[in-house]
Design a protein that fits this description.
The protein is built from five helices and six strands. By secondary structure, it is α/β, with parallel strands linked by helices.
């Protein structure tokens, strides 16, 4: 992993495998979730996961959203893009050497995942939480969060179907 695109791709694959090991259909997640689409205030969260308390109405309403932003370098961290933390729990995903350089700049409530060695298959990194996220009261309702996740997941499904896979 040398170049920024390679690092970003590996971290993205690693957080995806962390969020949803074995492609479990009972885990609700999406990548590149966009809010306020087609406005000047549009924001995109790299990865988002929803964890309901259970599958009752109140269990869904009380569920938690986890947002993950991938940062491949100090320059990437300092860019204005990708600090979109809309969830109940929010995390950066970055190399440990990047974390060491910018750790004092990370907001109190935001957690950090870093690679913790190659997965047993040698295809992605297992991740460890080097800093745990603290709960933050989100400002968006469950219905909007789920709708934006669903739209993003549907977009990915459409891509897979149109590619013939």
């Amino acid at each position: 992993m040398n170049s920024r695109p390679e690092i970003t791709a590996m971290l993205s694959l690693s957080i995806q495998r962390h969020i949803c090991p074995n492609n479990d259909p009972r885990i609700y997640w999406a990548r590149e979730v966009t809010f306020d689409y087609a406005t000047t205030n549009a924001v995109r969260v790299d990865f988002m996961k929803f964890k309901p308390v259970n599958n009752t109405v109140s269990g869904i309403e009380k569920g938690d959203f986890y947002c993950y932003e991938v940062k491949s370098s100090v320059e990437d961290f300092h860019s204005k893009n990708g600090h979109n933390f809309l969830g109940d729990y929010n995390y950066y995903v970055m190399p440990e050497e990047v974390y060491e350089q910018i750790k004092k700049e990370i907001p109190y409530q935001v957690g950090v995942y870093v690679p913790d060695g190659m997965n047993y298959r040698g295809e992605w990194y297992d991740l460890k939480a080097i800093k745990k996220a603290k709960r933050k009261d989100r400002s968006r309702p469950v219905s909007e969060m789920l709708l934006m996740m669903f739209r993003s997941a549907a977009r990915d499904r459409k891509k897979v179907l149109s590619d013939g896979h």
